[in-house]
Amino acid sequence: MSPRAWAGxxxxxxxxxxxxxxxxxxxxxxxxxxxxxxxVLPLFLEVMLENAxxxxxxxxxxxxxxxxxxxxxxxxRTRALAEQLRARSDVASVHVVTADEALDEFRRSSGFGxxxxxxxxxxLPDTLxxxxxxxxxxxxxxxxxxxxxxxxxxxxxxxxxxxxxxxLSALLDLLRRVIELIGGLLGLGxxxxxxxxxxxxxxxxxxxxxxxxxxxxxxxxxxRPFLYSGIWYGLGGGAMSLIAVAVxxxxxxxxxxxxxxxxxxxxxxxxVRLKLGIGVLALAxxxxxxxxxxxxxxxxxxxxxx
Amino acid sequence: MIRFDQVHKRYANGxxxxxxxxxxxxxxxxxxLTGHSGAGKSxxxxxxxLIERPSRGQVVIGNQNTAGIQARxxxxxxxxxxxxxxxxxxxHDRPIAENVGLPLIIADVSRREIDKRVRAALxxxxxxxxxxxxxxxxxxxxxxxxxxxRAVVGKPQLLIADEPTGNLDPDLALEVMRxxxxxxxxxxxxxxxxxxxxxxxxxxxxxxxxxxxxxxVPDAQTP
Lengths: 306, 223
What we know:
The complex is a heterodimer of chains A (306) and B (223). Chain A has 306 residues and is of the alpha+beta class. Chain A has ten helices and four strands, in the order ααβαβααβαβαααα. The two termini of chain A are 31 Å apart. Chain B is α/β, with parallel strands linked by helices and 223 residues long. The longest helix of chain B is centred in the last third of the chain and has 16 residues.
């Protein structure tokens, strides 16, 4: 048989199985809906997670340490300290923010400009922003660096103010793991649902399968239309879950934008990325196909003409 | 073409359907198997179509000992066989042409060749005009002829039929039997199980009678 004829035969079966679904849509729609429900939860959480990552991507990352010097510290001493720290093997760079620069920055961004003018002298200290080397960018490395710097003369306070970002990141990692777990469980659910639907399909068409076997059909020939049904179930269920998640995101996007505006942010919720959408469809089809294959292989083998 | 050698068949429920049956059928013969229901004639046909396996003894079809045919080889074996059933066993959601073409679709014959051979088979049973009908739009006699067309579309050397006239009135039964005779006349070996003795009398063919799992009239050609 030529490849073209082979492809033609498969296409025919594919369309034939779709025709069967269209003729009796209720059961198929129910199966697709169950698949969709199973996929919606992990998919929605995944989209929310991606949004959380996007929202926190611009936060200061890494293990920068802010070093506030005692007041007053001569600027020569500040520069000397910066040089001393730069010489350390676990420090990548040191950025000096003088008291005057800090005041200017504060004046610009805080809105307290006039109130600051009332002050007779600058209340802010010189500050060093110390960025550790990648190798030292660990919670332990940062800790050690903080201890060393705190012991230096003229240092008032040492602060690693990005710790909460790291905690958030760890939390998001945990959430990702939870989504994977839920997704895995619900994936098993999809297998079971599709497998059961296909099993019922096969029972309903038992006599047809017997006839086919009587005129010489192999198990794989008799199985083929059921595998294609499985593909359609997966495609339908996957598409329904994408629609449901799109609707859900639309529904929460208003409140999220409002919440963000209260924080002075123009953050907008992202929808399902194209790649994620295609991935979900592919996963739904794969799972559904596998469920069909397992059920059809087993039950069609059991059917023998009598 | 067919040789049964001391064949016993005991079903799982303990019923002894065949008790040491031996006979042979030559290529090109037409043979009637008769007897009351439960006499064993249906079991003979099931053993020929590999629907059942003998409990003891040998069944040889076309020089091939069926004991040597594994489950994987059964589809291939059945494609070389034409089988007609009392209840037609048609697929009711598909048109006549597709029912008849089913064995060829299964055997991966090309679309064009299928169309050609389906038309030829339907023409032989006089149903060319009904190719696009659904089975239930046809009369019982016509449905049986569709079943026969499906059995011969693959040009089998051996045609077996289990009570093919069981549900038909005498005129239709005669018509269907003549159809089998015509295929036999072009060289196909035909084995028909029937209890219609009046019908058998009208054909010049060997008859084997069964009772309680034994060949009652062994006939001259029994080895």
